[in-house]
């Protein structure tokens, strides 16, 4: 049986830190494109996507669970009653691929985790979900390591830049244009984003809409 | 025979983008501490460290090659005459570990590469070094992929955040304090750096010198 890959998703007004380079509708389209890449990676890694949405949303390649509550509250309700292994993976990881997801869910430990940049947590695999609870926001990676230790769970920190790279800010778009291979990259290109090199540093610039 | 791990190193006035939080002597000590972690990772991954230094420098755990020329010029001279596999790994990767280096040097491809954040290249393993030449600076990852393609070399992009995380700016110090396990982390702690959380974002602050 495929492992449930729970993907929290906010369909309305997501990724506000990209407001400097994208209108709200564009941010919503880009968030959906990143989600498509995460769904494809989860499936390629042997998981069955289950979207945990804060507002009504529908798509053919994933089951949907609607829960307008906060991220921690809704995830912890779900974990508490889960009887089989669960992967929690964020929706803003457009470099994710099946190989990285496979490494995560094939861990020999009780739990596997991939940190995000800046202390966050981008993916957590739990063999027995009811033994763990999440605590996102701030330095959540350190909080999750502590929760695992308190629960007596062995933890494997999986070394993947593809799952480590979450996209929140304009600078992060560089990574999508260089390493992306899916919908998020195509979305950025269709919005007119290209790489720019100024003073030896790589950034992005936005040209005319295509 | 151990694979040569060539580590370019600048002993004098390195890491100038950290000038906002460290004096020159502190930056030099921190650069040496990061180098120690890279040397240890290279050794743990089965490689023999060879420092390519721009100025006289000595340490007991690595061989030294002095070459005040530019990075590309000195590396390409070295590659052109190398008869056995070579790993080139940057000195500012304090999260590097033996497992990541092992994955890199055990690739089945002609060449394995780990991109840095922002389009850089943090590590390159070359089975036949004389078939390749480096071209660092700017979006070097894309340049290196093109050079490999032009030379007919198969390339494995190794998915490691430990080798992807190069430390150039104040924000990067967060990663060292969270994920570092060696000398660089100890150096930052001895300089009084700690994590700080402001408005949900994780940063570093510097307290009194210890």
Automatic annotation (TrEMBL), chains A, B:
InterPro entries to which the protein is assigned, alphabetical: CofC, Nucleotide-diphossugar_trans
This protein's record includes keyword Nucleotide-binding: yes
GO molecular function, one term: phospholactate guanylyltransferase activity
Keywords, sorted A to Z: GTP-binding, Nucleotide-binding, Nucleotidyltransferase, Transferase
Subunit structure as annotated in this protein's UniProt entry: Homodimer.
Function: Guanylyltransferase that catalyzes the activation of (2S)-2-phospholactate (2-PL) as (2S)-lactyl-2-diphospho-5'-guanosine, via the condensation of 2-PL with GTP. It is involved in the biosynthesis of coenzyme F420, a hydride carrier cofactor.
Family assignment from sequence similarity: Belongs to the CofC family.
Protein name per Swiss-Prot or TrEMBL: 2-phospho-L-lactate guanylyltransferase
Organism from which the protein derives: Methanofollis tationis
Lineage start: Archaea, Methanobacteriati, Methanobacteriota, Stenosarchaea group, Methanomicrobia
Gene name of the encoded protein: cofC
């Amino acid at each position: 049986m495929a492992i449930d890959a729970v993907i929290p998703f906010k369909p309305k007004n997501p990724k506000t830190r990209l407001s400097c380079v994208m209108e709200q509708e564009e941010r919503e389209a880009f968030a959906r494109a990143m989600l498509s890449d995460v769904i494809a990676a989860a499936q390629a890694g042997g998981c069955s996507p289950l979207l945990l949405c804060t507002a009504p949303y529908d798509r053919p390649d994933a089951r949907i669970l609607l829960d307008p509550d906060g991220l921690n509250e809704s995830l912890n309700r779900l974990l508490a009653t889960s009887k089989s292994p669960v992967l929690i993976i964020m929706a803003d990881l457009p470099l994710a691929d099946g190989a990285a997801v496979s490494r995560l869910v094939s861990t020999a430990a009780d739990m596997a985790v991939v940190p995000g940049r800046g202390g966050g947590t981008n993916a957590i695999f739990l063999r027995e979900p009811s033994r763990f609870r999440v605590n996102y926001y701030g330095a959540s990676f350190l909080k999750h390591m502590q929760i695992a230790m308190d629960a007596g769970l062995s933890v494997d920190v999986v070394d993947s830049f593809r799952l480590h790279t979450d996209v929140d800010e304009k600078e992060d778009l560089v990574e999508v244009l260089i390493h992306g291979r899916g919908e998020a990259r195509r979305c950025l290109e269709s919005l007119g984003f290209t790489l720019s090199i100024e003073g030896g540093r790589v950034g992005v610039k936005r040209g005319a809409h295509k």
